[in-house]
Amino acid sequence: MSVSIAKYLGTALLASCLAVQAPLARAGMVSTEQAAAAQQAQQAQADREKVRTFLDRAEVRDKLQALGVQAAFAKDRVDSMTDEEVTTLAQRIDTLSAGGRLSNYDLIVILLIVLIIAVIV
């Protein structure tokens, strides 16, 4: 009796192994333009996140409020900025002093960009 059960289980196991097929891998050519576009999209997203993180800082929020701009409004405006504007602003943030302090010039430039975008939109 155990031989017939083993034979039945072996047949069922063999049938299930043959029925299950591994997914097929598909490869295609990726052009330079596609790769560059994907990298630019990732960079733009990283730059937007950098600007949002910058706007989350307490001293930036305080300065925005002192100028009459709500921090939430400024964050919303970051989403409506073009990729070039966000990249420029993110590069500007990268050039800030190592101590994390903004010079008056840096703060004025950043706030002017935010205010100009707020007025335009």
Automatic annotation (TrEMBL):
The chain crosses the membrane at residues 102-120. The keyword Signal applies. Keywords: Membrane, Signal, Transmembrane, Transmembrane helix. The keyword Oxidoreductase does not apply. Pfam families: DUF6627. It comes from the Bacteria. Residues 1-27 form the signal peptide. InterPro entries: PA2779-like. This is Conserved hypothetical membrane protein.
